[in-house]
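Co-fold these.
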Amino acid sequence: GAGVSQSPSNKVTEKGKDVELRCDPISGHTALYWYRQSLGQGLEFLIYFQGNSAPDKSGLPSDRFSAERTGGSVSTLTIQRTQQEDSAVYLCASSLEVSGNTIYFGEGSWLTVV
Amino acid sequence: GQQVMQIPQYQHVQEGEDFTTYCNSSTTLSNIQWYKQRPGGHPVFLIQLVKSGEVKKQKRLTFQFGEAKKNSSLHITATQTTDVGTYFCAGPSTDSWGKLQFGAGTQVVVTP
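Predicted complex below.
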């Protein structure tokens, strides 16, 4: 596609429920990133993919968070048993390759846990 | 681990004035990138600097990469209300290949 596409754009969920956030990167981009941004805060790195593999999962906040990427394209970030502190904007980004390339962000998925 | 720091955290500017925001890395960077995030929006790429001492201009914005490739600055002249937003610098992480390490950002507020 023309840009990074994320869905849903907004999600309100009850505490304890699972949520799935989807990211469709720019066509041809091999690298895909997930960042989290709490209200008024900076960008917190979560995970990145090179192709379908995730060399660095160190940013995932807890074992309730997982991510996968299939076919070198679409990625899904799953949050199990959501907590109120998970409320944030989840930003996906992609780049042609890893290692210092410009990354292009999607518009984000705004998650609110009530 | 590697740290990327930005100062100031907040910048209140009168329309028409100039200001500079700074980015400092604890490690040498192969390149540095700047992004702008408008209120309610997502970060958008502005520019990438690669060479030591490099200076690039985009209209009223001037970006500079330090000689030691550990710091960078963004200078905006004749600030306009369209300059409102948060400006992030980012550099390749030395802790984790492939990760882009962002600074905390400088939030710019423009008073008409």
